[in-house]
Every structure is written in C-alpha cells, then in structure tokens.
Amino acid sequence: MSAIHHAPSAPILNVFANADAIVDALASFVIKAQKDSVEKKGRFTIALSGGSLPKMLRGLIGNPAVKWDKWHVYYADERVVPLDHPDSNHLSCTTNLFSKVPIPTSQIHTIDTSLLHDLEELSDAYEKELIREFAQKDAARFPVFDLILLGMGPDGHTASLFPGHELLAEDDRWVAYIEDSPKPPPKRVTFTFPVINHAARVAFVAAGAEKQDILSTVLDNPEAGLPASRVKPAFPGQLYWFVDEAAAVKVAFPSTPFKL
C-alpha cells in the first residue's frame, strides 16, 4: 500500500509582549501536550535543542501539573563533546531545567560519549535509542514525537541543519552527523527533517530584536528554503511559533491569539 501524503498545515504564530510572557505560555503549551499524550498512551516523548531554549523552559520548574515520571527526553541535536562540556546541549538542559525537577535520569536519552571518536557509530547509536522507544510502539517509517522544541539561529538554521548543507536533503536516516558545522563546535549529531516533520507538534521559540530579519525571512519568504522554513509537520502534525514583539516587528505573516 502506498503512503498517503498530506500537505502540512499553516504555522500558528503566537506573539507575546516579552520573553517572560513566552515562558509562561510555553509552559502551558508543553503541559497541554504532555496531558494529551499521557492520556492517550501513558508517556510523553519530547525532543529538545540547545541555545537559549533551555532557559525558556523555566516555567515548568515547580509546576505541579508536570508529570516528570512520564517524560522521555531526547535531543533534536547535540554537540559531539563530553556531557559536562560547556558546549553540550545536555549540560545546558540539565543546568537550566533537569537539575531542578524530579525527572528520572534514565528517561533522559543522551549521546553515548564512549563513541565521540566515531561520528558514524555515534549517530547510529543515537538512532537506535530512538528505535527502542518508537519502533515497537508506532507503526511508522519515522518516529512520531509528541513534541519537538526548536530554536533558530541568525542564519536560519535549526537543530544542526544549516543553510546549503547536504544534510538538508537527507530523507532516510533518523539521526545524522555533521563534521563541518559553520558554527562551532564543528562536530554534531542531529535529527533529520523527516523526524522533525513527523512530530505531532513542533514549536519554535525565538525572542529578541536580533531575530527580526531572519524571522521575517523564514515566515514571509519560505521559498528561500532556509532550514527553519523547511520545518513543516505533515498533517495532523502542527507547527507553532512562540516569539516576542521585538522579534516579530518585521513579520507580515498573520499572528494568532494564543490559546491552548
């Protein structure tokens, strides 16, 4: 039987007064995604990226509605460094969030640091981590995360998918590696677009005036093909943007009042 391909839904753009307002709304959004997922299947699968995103999740700390024992956390991308290295996305997420909440460490899925010397083995091993969680539970060609949270760089990159890079065309692997990242450190592993675009929900978080130009390009000129513009979850998946007024000042794309 051939696969049925659905056109992606239009993104939902939520604009908030400032970063603190994003924090509160994002916490409510994550908790709603968690609630829906736990009610359906008893677990919540979420993938995180690094950059400023971990700090934006502080609204979850101390919130009694978060069922940390149901969370299964993966990284949309990771730098090929030890887990305690300043460049590690895991270290950033641990410092800003996981060290402050009662999440079982066995449910936070990190890269295998014994394989840092071999990018092929490292990415294969992380792909197998995803297979263990998803292959037996979901009859899909790619994993279906309940939620993937992403940031966006000033060049329009997301996860470790950079403009003009050959990984933008990867359509088979779940996890791939890059050893020539234009942004240091050069060696990274990353989810591919098929994984990101099979998620039930994907949300970008972008704040600050320095994001004005790139946010306008990504939302208003998607045909430019920047990596962040290529995030288009297939129906019934949905893409959300959580941005502040400073970042959105040049955007023509229509915003939507935030609602759960």
From TrEMBL:
Glucosamine/galactosamine-6-phosphate isomerase domain segment(s): 18-241
InterPro entries: 6-phosphogluconolactonase_DevB, 6PGL, Glc/Gal-6P_isomerase, NagB/RpiA_transferase-like
Pathway: Carbohydrate degradation; pentose phosphate pathway; D-ribulose 5-phosphate from D-glucose 6-phosphate (oxidative stage): step 2/3
Enzyme class: hydrolase
PANTHER family: 6-PHOSPHOGLUCONOLACTONASE
Pfam families associated with the record: Glucosamine_iso
Official protein name in the record: 6-phosphogluconolactonase
UniProt keyword terms in alphabetical order: Hydrolase
Tagged with keyword Hydrolase: yes
Biological function: Hydrolysis of 6-phosphogluconolactone to 6-phosphogluconate.
Reactions listed under catalytic activity: 6-phospho-D-glucono-1,5-lactone + H2O = 6-phospho-D-gluconate + H(+)
Gene3D superfamilies to which the protein is assigned, alphabetical: 3.40.50.1360
CDD domains: 6PGL
Family: Belongs to the glucosamine/galactosamine-6-phosphate isomerase family. 6-phosphogluconolactonase subfamily.
EC number(s) recorded for this UniProt protein: 3.1.1.31
